[in-house]
Automatic annotation (TrEMBL):
SUPFAM superfamilies: EF-hand
Protein name per the record: EF-hand domain-containing protein
Organism from which the protein derives: Neoarthrinium moseri
Residue stretches of biased makeup (Basic and acidic residues): 11-20
Major subcellular site: cytoplasm
Lineage: Eukaryota, Fungi, Dikarya, Ascomycota, Pezizomycotina
Length: 268
C-alpha cells in the first residue's frame, strides 16, 4: 500500500474508498427524500486469531493483513483481497460536486434564515440532527464545514451543502450497518467491530479510551454525529503519524515542538 507524502487532513485512505459502482454514493432516508437503495449483504469483518504476532505497525495501521510486512513507502494500490469489503468502508474523501440535488433546495432555503445563499455554522446546525432528533455536536458541525467549504468562506453554499448531505448519507448507511441492535447508537462493542472492519488493529484499552473520549454525553453509547467525528479524527491522527513514520515500522521520532504543532492542527 502506497502512502501519499502530501498531507491532507480530511482525506480518507484510498483503501477505505468504496469500489466504483458507476453511480452516486448511497443515500439514507434520514438525509434524503429519495428512497434508499437496498443495503448490500454485510461481510463479516476480518479478525486476527492472534494479534500479538503482528508487528506494531501491522497492529495499528489500517489496511494490513496478518503476518504481512509493513506497508512499503511506495508502490501500487492494495489489491482487492486485502481491502475492507465494500459494505464496511467509510465514504470516500469529499470531492468537488459537479451538480446539485434540487430536492435539497427547499431544506437549504428553510435553514438559510438570512437569505444569503450561504449557511453559517448556526444555520447548518439546524439542518443536521441525529436519528433521535438531538442536535449535532458543535465540533462535528465545524468539521463538516471545514471539509466542504471549498472556497474557504467559512460558510456552506448550496452546492457544498449537497456534497455534505450526500457524504453524511453514506456515513449513515455505514452507521446503521454497525448498529446491529438497531438502538440508534453505537455501543463500545459495535464501535470496536467498526474499527476492525476499517482495518485498525488497536488494543482494547485504547479502543475504550477512544470511545470514552467521543462519548461526550457520557451515556455509554455513541450517537451518529459523534461516531462520524471519532472515525474522521482517528483517520486524521493516523495520517499525522504516517507522515513521520517514513520507514513504516510503527515508531516515530518527533521533536517536542513538532508534536505540539501537530496537536494544535488537530484542535482547529
Amino acid at each position: 500500500m502506497a502512502y501519499n507524502r502530501s498531507y491532507n487532513p480530511d482525506e480518507l485512505p484510498r483503501f477505505a474508498e468504496p469500489e466504483p459502482k458507476g453511480g452516486a454514493p448511497a443515500s439514507s432516508s434520514r438525509y434524503n427524500s429519495k428512497p434508499p437503495p437496498p443495503l448490500p449483504q454485510q461481510s463479516a469483518p476480518h479478525r486476527n486469531s492472534d494479534p500479538r504476532r503482528l508487528s506494531p505497525a501491522q497492529q495499528n495501521y489500517p489496511g494490513t493483513s496478518p503476518m504481512s510486512p509493513p506497508p512499503p513507502a511506495s508502490g501500487p494500490r492494495p489489491t482487492a483481497h486485502n481491502r475492507p469489503p465494500p459494505s464496511s468502508r467509510p465514504p470516500p474523501s469529499p470531492a468537488p460536486q459537479d451538480g446539485s440535488d434540487p430536492t435539497l433546495l427547499p431544506l437549504f432555503r428553510a435553514v438559510d434564515k438570512d437569505g444569503t445563499g450561504q449557511l453559517s455554522e448556526k444555520e447548518l446546525s439546524a439542518a443536521l440532527v441525529n436519528g433521535d432528533w438531538t442536535a449535532f455536536d458543535p465540533h462535528t458541525v465545524r468539521m463538516m464545514i471545514r471539509m466542504f467549504d471549498s472556497d474557504r468562506s467559512g460558510t456552506i453554499g448550496f452546492q457544498e451543502f449537497c456534497g455534505l448531505w450526500s457524504f453524511l448519507a453514506s456515513w449513515r448507511t455505514l452507521f446503521d450497518r454497525f448498529d446491529k441492535d438497531r438502538s440508534g447508537n453505537i455501543s463500545p462493542d459495535e464501535f470496536s467491530d467498526a474499527l476492525i472492519a476499517f482495518r485498525y488493529r488497536l488494543s482494547p484499552r485504547f479502543v475504550n479510551l477512544l470511545f470514552d473520549t467521543y462519548d461526550k454525553r457520557n451515556e455509554g453509547v455513541m450517537s451518529f454525529d459523534l461516531f462520524v467525528q471519532a472515525c474522521i479524527s482517528l483517520k486524521r491522527m493516523t495520517d499525522v503519524f504516517k507522515k513521520y513514520d517514513e520507514d513504516r515500522d510503527g515508531y516515530i521520532t518527533l521533536s517536542f515542538e513538532d508534536f505540539l504543532e501537530e496537536i494544535l492542527k488537530q484542535l482547529k
